[in-house]
Amino acid sequence: MNNKEIDTNIEQEYKEIIEKNRNIILNKKVESKQKKIQKENKKARKQKIIQMKYNFYKPIVPYPLLLDFEDVTYEDPIYLNYIKGLENTVPVPKYWKNKKSFLNVKKCINKKKYVIPQNILETGLVDMRKSIRNKEDNMSFKAKLREKLYPKTGKCFVEYQKLYDCFFKHPNEIEYLRFGELFRPGIEMEKKIKLNVPGRISKNLMNVLGIDKTLPPPWIFNMQKYGLPPSYSDIKIPGVNAQIPIGSSWGFQPTGWGQPLEGYEELMNINFTIPSNIFEETNNKNQDLNNEETISDTQQNDSESEEQYELRMSDFETDSISEPKVEEIKPLEITKDLISTKEEKKEPMISKKTKSKSERKIKF
Q1: CA spacing 20 to 30 A to 83: which of 5, 121, 228, 311?
Q2: Radius of gyration, CA atoms only, the chain
Q3: Of 116, 77, 4, nearest to 67 (Cα)?
Q4: Does residue 317 sit within a domain?
Q5: Are 284 and 244 members of one domain?
């Protein structure tokens, strides 16, 4: 037989063997996959159940922003979320989930070097320490050992007044953490945004945009069209749901503030401009009111008759006023009875020497 015929026969036999054992091989692969899936399914099933609970409680909870993925495993997640949203409640730090130990993170690699504050530099301690180190470098080995065995004190002496000024007159301002704020690694590197408040534009941002207080920001027209941001639905922004600043005007001209939101069209009718003739108008009104009062008084006096006038004035006559009767106070007569009562109250004075030991009492 030729070599070609032998090869074809071998291939046919090999294919037959593979077809017979294909089902066995496939079943083994499927079983191995199923075992892996079963192990993975235990975690996946738990995650799916927790995810379903999370999606269920998210719209029901009173404070949905404070709902975490782990809060769903609690017995009553609604009550837990209510406690989280109470005033002056300190949240649990988020690093409790981390497997790594606390402060075992390399976040402070790019930390800046410590700079000695100015109030300590003014005392002159830094220069004194440098001079002492220079002396130690020039010392011999025996002298260094001698100093270690018998050290000398009082090398760095600073005046009392300088130290007092350093810590009391010019102290270094230390920024403490606020209530509810916990320490975390890298907190010193973070930017401080305490002064930034939503709805207010800082001076740096106004300089970058090239606007003043009277000019509108570029995003005001989108807010007028689409409404306020959902996370700040109660905020008041000038030009959207609040009055525009003095000196500016509504409209779509280059310096205009557009048109307010629906329901706030009354803001366009309010004008803060003061008319030039306001003081003249007020003076004219006051003169008219005074003239009207004088005319009304004269009309009333003319209408009164002489008899009514006499009756009205008779009430103010001095004869009709009755003076209050004052009773005469009689002088107090000193009698024997009064003297006897005063003498009864007085106790006889007894000297300390005449008292016996039994009569004396210890006073604490």
Answers
A1: 228
A2: 49
A3: 77
A4: no
A5: yes
Q: Which residues contact 126 (CB under 8 A, 6 or more apart)?
A: 116, 120
Helices (H), the chain: 3-57, 77-84, 118-121, 125-138, 141-149, 160-164, 203-209, 220-226, 278-303, 306-314, 336-345
With CA atoms as reference, report the closest residue to 166 among 122, 126, 124, 125. Answer: 122
Assigned domain for 354 exists: no
Q: What CA–CA distances, in Å, run from 285 to 82, 268, 282, 290?
A: 60, 29, 5, 9
The maximal CA–CA distance of the chain, rounded, in angstroms, is: 172
pLDDT score, position 67: 92
Same domain, 57 and 108: no
d(CA 200, CA 238): 10
Strand partners, 153: none
Half-sphere exposure of 212 (CA within 13 A, CB side): 7
Average pLDDT over residues 31-52: 75
Structure tokens at 65: 């922003």
pLDDT tier at 39, thresholds 50, 70, 90: low
362 pLDDT higher than 80: no
| DSSP-derived 3-state class of residue 212 | coil
Q: Rounded CA gap, 209 and 218, in Å? A: 9
Q: Which residues of 349-358 are buried (b: 16+ CB within 10 A; e: fewer)?
A: eeeeeeeeee
Give 285-352 as a 3 state SS string: HHHHHHHHHHHHHHHHHHHCCHHHHHHHHHCCCCCCCCCCCCCCCCCCCCCHHHHHHHHHHCCCCCCC
| Cβ-based neighbours of 183, under 8 Å, separated by 6 or more | 177
Verdict on whether the full-model pTM lies above 0.70: no
Q: Provide the residue range defining the domain that includes 251.
A: 192-295
The closest alpha carbon to 173, from 115, 117, 123, belongs to 117
Tell me, yes or no, whether 97 lies in a domain.
Answer: no
Give the residue, 34 or 143, on which the prediction is more confident: 143
